[in-house]
Amino acid sequence: MAKIRLEKMEFYAFHGCFEEEQAIGTYFNVDLELETDTTKSQQSDNLNDTVNYLHVYQVVKKEMNISSKLLENVCERIANAVLKEYNQIQSLSVKVSKLNPPLGGKLDAVSVEITKIQNTL
Questions:
Q1: Is the dihedral of CA 15, 21, 23, 29 positive or negative?
Q2: Cα dihedral across residues 81, 57, 32, 17: positive or negative
Q3: What pLDDT does residue 106 have?
Q4: Which of 84, 98, 106, 116 is catalytic?
Q5: In what helix (H) or strand (E) does residue 71 lie, and over which residues does it extend?
Q6: Domains of the chain with CATH codes
Q7: Residue 35 and residue 8: Cα distance in Å, rounded?
Q8: Verdict on whether the full-model pTM lies above 0.85
């Protein structure tokens, strides 16, 4: 089993409960970790035998372009979309961080992280 990570993917998106957040937008980071068996690709050195990181990035990007009020919803959509594309993924964790959230004080980020196991879909 191996862990594949896509770290600190940055997106400008329009997620939030306030109208201003959905109109103006802000920056988000997404971290994704997936667990999968890479034995075949380790031997073959063939991209078709593993999870294609570029494709995973494109799936995340597509979901980040869909506005949501809650980060929980964004995480759920990303996790389900990636798992739907790759049935060889055993488990997946996705963390979405809103940078500089409008909470009335200095705060670097607020984050939500969920973990899913493939057979629970």
A1: negative
A2: negative
A3: 87
A4: 98
A5: helix 71-85
A6: 2-120 (3.30.1130.10)
A7: 18
A8: yes
